[in-house]
Write a structure and sequence with these properties.
Elements lengths: L5 H11 L7 H21 L3 H10 L8 E2 L7 E2 L1 H13 L18 H10 L6 H19 L18 H14 L3 H12 L14 H20 L39 H4 L12 H19 L10 E5 L14 H4 L3 H11 L9 H5 L1 H7 L2 E4 L13 E6 L5 E6 L12 H12 L5 H12 L8 H6 L4 H15 L1
Helix pairs in contact: 1-8, 2-4, 2-16, 2-17, 3-4, 4-5, 4-9, 5-7, 5-9, 6-7, 7-8, 7-9, 8-9, 11-13, 13-15, 16-17
Length: 478
């Protein structure tokens, strides 16, 4: 068959890629992504936004249902399971980040787990890994067709654009759709893409991830039923090019059963966060912690809240310039808040965004001392940005620090031990220790598992719900 264009080459890759094309490095990196995504998703099931979208999704009914994470006995139609679990992943902005900028895993993993649960023949772990990587690959390729995509986004939230395409590709792969239907799935998904950045730092932002997971799954299921779309959706300026003014697509390499395939994930690693906030905050936190250490090294007994002036030199990005955040979502997108939290506490963590920590007087007073500067050489790109901090005391002394690459960035990835430690900390908020260890073992051996159904079964547990059930049984027996 003679290739007609970009869209057809993508459809061919989706339908032709097989487990034999996966490399050891892609499998290793994607298993890290899956474990991290499951952990932040479990933690996210305790958030108000998750509970709100779950309440909405429970109104839907279907013959086939999929499990909701951390809600024993509760299932909803698969597209809504993808939706609510996707929201959970991004509810705290704790999920992974790629370059060019997007959150790749949260749009794909909830969709393929929800779909896999409904399939008559459950996929193997290797088949699940393949579908996941196809979804990640499509996102990475599409992002590389635009120079604008390499910068911190200004107009729309990338997971809502490339994420829905990744979800469609991944679920099309899991359904075994042929070339024509894979193209249709991408075309249908493109009409569900897009979300404005104005909803960043609000409860609506996590819905972008849930909508991407759901929209891609729905697109593949509609394609399976014969629905069609524009077969050149990725070639046209009026197609996927509508999202990027500098969109310059090109065809993917032809995939054959014996050919070597070079995955984007092999060339571009993933950033995994140490605390739940916008990625740019991690440069700020590391620089602030270093400045704090220098200050306390000289004045061990000093009150750090008595600092006179703080200067932050960061890239210009309006939606993460929030001088006086009121909500936790604003705080997760505030250079100023994360700087002051790190200066006061020597760390930023999950608890930093609680009401009690946000409203404490020393932090509120310190926020008023922060000045932002945007040096011309500090570009709005997660690849090249830096953070410099200057802390001035009432005595006129200055303590400075600079972070070019934070720990967890793709240039400086978390160690395996620290990634597992992060997963345990997140998952233990809702699961028992034995279930947590079972998930770690299952993900670690995913490529050798002939049936991955235990994975979503483990995600269905919740120690708090089980405790309530036991208490109820005791009260009834009494």
């Amino acid at each position: 068959m003679i290739r007609k264009g970009v869209t057809e080459s993508f459809g061919a890759a989706v339908s032709c890629l097989s487990p034999s094309h996966l490399t050891d490095e892609v499998i290793r990196r994607s298993k890290r992504m899956i474990l991290d995504t499951l952990g932040v998703g479990l933690l996210g099931t305790s958030t108000p936004v998750f509970n709100t979208v779950l309440q909405y999704s429970q109104n839907q009914q279907a013959l086939k249902n999929s499990k909701v994470w951390a809600r024993p006995g509760l299932s909803v139609p698969p597209q809504y399971a993808a939706f609510v679990n996707g929201v959970a992943v991004h509810s705290m902005d704790f999920d992974d980040t790629w370059h060019p900028a997007t959150h790749p895993s949260g749009a794909v993993l909830p969709a393929i787990l929800a779909l896999a649960e409904t399939l008559p023949v459950k996929p193997s772990g290797l088949e699940l890994l393949l579908a996941f990587n196809v979804g990640i690959e499509v996102q990475g390729r599409l992002l590389r067709f635009s120079k604008e995509a390499y910068n911190i986004p200004k107009r729309f939230h990338p997971p809502a654009v490339v994420g829905v395409m990744g979800s469609a590709a991944a679920t099309a792969k899991l359904l075994g759709l042929p070339l024509a239907q894979s193209v249709a799935a991408l075309a249908i998904a493109c009409s569900s893409a897009g979300a404005p950045m104005a909803n960043a730092a609000t409860q609506t932002k996590p819905l972008h991830m849930g909508n991407a997971a759901r929209g891609g799954l729905e697109a593949s299921e509609l394609a399976l039923l014969g629905l069609e779309g524009n077969t050149q959706i990725l070639d046209l300026e009026s197609g996927f090019g509508a999202f990027y003014p500098d969109y310059t697509p090109c065809t993917l390499a032809k995939v054959t059963p014996t050919s070597h395939y070079r995955w984007v994930l092999e060339d571009q690693n993933i950033a995994q966060k140490r605390f739940p906030a916008h990625l740019g905050m991690h440069w700020v936190a590391d620089a602030a912690k270093e400045a704090r250490a220098k200050f306390l090294d000289k004045y061990p007994d000093a009150d750090i809240s008595q600092i006179k002036k703080i200067t932050l030199r960061v890239p210009s990005s309006r939606y993460v310039d929030c001088p006086l955040p009121v909500t936790e979502h604003q705080a997760r997108h505030s250079f100023q808040f994360n700087c002051c939290s790190a200066l006061l506490d020597g760390d930023v963590n999950v608890e930093s965004f609680s009401k009690s920590q946000m409203n404490r007087r020393p932090l509120q007073q310190m926020l008023l001392k922060v000045n932002l500067e945007n040096p011309k050489d500090n570009h709005s790109s997660f690849e090249t940005m830096y953070c410099e901090i200057s802390v001035e005391t009432t005595q006129g002394e200055k303590f400075t620090a600079r972070c070019d690459t934070f720990y967890g960035h793709w240039r400086k990835p978390l160690s395996h031990e620290d990634l597992v430690k992060k997963f345990r900390a997140n998952a233990l908020t809702v699961l028992t220790p034995d279930v947590v260890e079972d998930i770690i073992y299952t993900v670690d051996n995913l490529d050798r598992n002939h049936d991955c159904s235990m994975l979503w079964s483990y995600m269905h547990f919740n120690k708090h719900h089980m405790m309530h059930k036991d208490e109820h049984r005791c009260s009834v027996s009494v």
